[in-house]
Design goal:
The chain has about 400 residues and is mostly beta strands. The chain has helices spanning about 100-105, 120, 125-135, 140-145; strands at about 10, 10-15, 30-35, 40-50, 55-60, 65, 70-75, 80, 85-90, 95, 105-110, 110, 150-155, 155, 165-170, 170-180, 205-215, 225-230, 235-240, 245, 250-255, 260-265, 275-280, 280, 285, 295-300, 305-315, 315-325, 335-345, 350-355, 365-370, 380-385, 395, 400. The longest helix has 13 residues, at about 125-135.
Length: about 400
């Protein structure tokens, strides 16, 4: 629907115009979650596909979904700080922390005994790191958007540049409800995800995939469990011992149905301190080239009790009452607002947005000046309890309540 617009509104309903990699437009990006470090910087994710990468998905409550999620990959290389143990940019991890971990599991009489290659990933320190990443870097509401992904990896012949092509064994059920995971070797060479197929190997920011390649025995002192890594920008795979330190780029499938709004990551939603009658601001339209980075406003089940209704209308001044709003406190909860948007009749285009009240208690009133809006017949006013967290940070909202006059 939005493809027909020359420009894109800076705030859109649902997940709006966000798509996977496009050869003409390049990548779209979503800022979501924060790193586990002292200043909690937000995390930028590259949208690889709006169709997901799995064979089956479940939300946390256990319901199976018919459709897939939106496949996201960390745009930065990440790892664990060696002293603090915090997850930060440009640090490294091992696929297996100690060589003895995998030797005890898979070596018998010096020979590799492995019926299912998926166990290499499923029992790895790397998978444990992904679980820690989820716990440390996402809020409870953000975590509700991470889909449990189920998938088997098929046998795959790598496109490795100057190295001879390697056949990577099939791994049955390798993703078994994983919510955060590493890409497979095949996914990491997928042109449709935006990975360019280069013929020359260039060493730069190498990061782990989940794919097991082979076991190499160089005698008692040198026994390697080789796991594939892929280059960030240049394509091509190469084997690496599992106890080597490499970067990570975690991935996950995002549950799109809980995205209420998307907005420009910087400046898309202005946070104000409304006093008296509120005035909504027109949502600007921007060029697709300038609008590639987005932040999300997601449904927060803790706000389910919010409601709103029109009290009276005098001229252009609309008075409404609300109940069940999350309470504003200048020290403890300074980002809580009651907000409103104006949409077209079909609620597919957002025309105006703004904060209309500071909810000093769960129940209260707000006044909205309609004069500057120049409403058309059928336009809708929707009100919601919202936590506005600023540029590049996820906002949380109740359901959008349509006002009825």
């Amino acid at each position: 629907m939005l493809d027909c617009f020359k420009k894109i509104p800076a705030i859109c309903p649902g997940y709006g115009p966000i798509t996977g990699f496009d050869r003409k437009r390049g990548f779209q990006y979503i800022w979501f979650g924060t790193l586990d470090s002292p200043d909690r910087p937000p995390v930028r994710w590259r949208v690889l596909s709006e169709k997901g990468n799995g064979e089956g998905y479940r939300i946390r409550e256990g319901d199976e979904l018919n459709g897939g999620g939106m496949l996201l990959l960390s745009d930065s290389v990440l790892g664990t700080h060696p002293l603090s143990g915090e997850i930060r940019r440009n640090h490294l991890i091992k696929f297996y922390n100690e060589a003895d971990e995998w030797k005890k599991l898979y070596l018998k009489d010096g020979e590799l005994c492995l019926e299912n290659p998926s166990l290499i990933w499923q029992n790895s320190s790397a998978r444990k790191w992904c679980r820690h990443f989820e716990e440390a870097c996402f809020s409870k509401a953000e975590g509700s958007l991470l889909l449990s992904t189920f998938k088997s990896d098929r046998e795959y012949r790598s496109k490795r540049g100057t190295y001879p092509p390697t056949i990577i064994a099939a791994a049955e059920g390798i993703l078994d409800g994983d919510r955060i995971f590493f890409l497979s070797a095949e996914e990491a060479e997928n042109n449709e995800y935006g990975f360019k197929d280069k013929k020359v190997y260039t060493a730069e920011q190498e990061w782990w995939t989940r794919s097991f390649e082979r076991y190499t025995n160089y005698g008692d002192s040198f026994q390697y469990l080789d796991v594939c890594i892929v280059l960030t920008h240049f394509g091509g795979l190469l084997p690496c011992p599992a106890t080597t330190k490499m970067y990570t780029r975690p991935a996950f499938n995002l549950y799109k149905d809980r995205i209420m709004l998307v907005s420009a990551a910087v400046g898309g939603k202005e946070r104000t301190l409304p006093q008296g009658s509120a005035i909504l601001k027109k949502v600007p339209a921007l060029s697709p080239r300038k609008l590639r980075d987005w932040k999300l406003t997601i449904l927060d089940s803790g706000r389910d009790g919010f409601s709103a209704a029109v009290e009276k209308k005098e001229g252009s001044l609309l008075t409404l009452s609300y109940r069940g709003a999350a309470v504003y406190d200048p020290e403890k909860s300074p980002d809580e607002r009651v907000s409103a948007i104006v949409t077209d009749k079909a609620q597919t285009e957002i025309k105006f947005y703004g904060n209309i009240a500071l909810p000093l208690s769960p129940d209260g009133q707000a006044q909205l000046d309609l004069a500057p809006l120049k409403l058309r017949e059928g336009d809708c006013i929707l009100v919601f309890s919202e936590q506005c967290n600023g540029d590049k940070r996820t906002d949380y909202t109740s359901k959008l309540v349509k006002l009825r006059s």
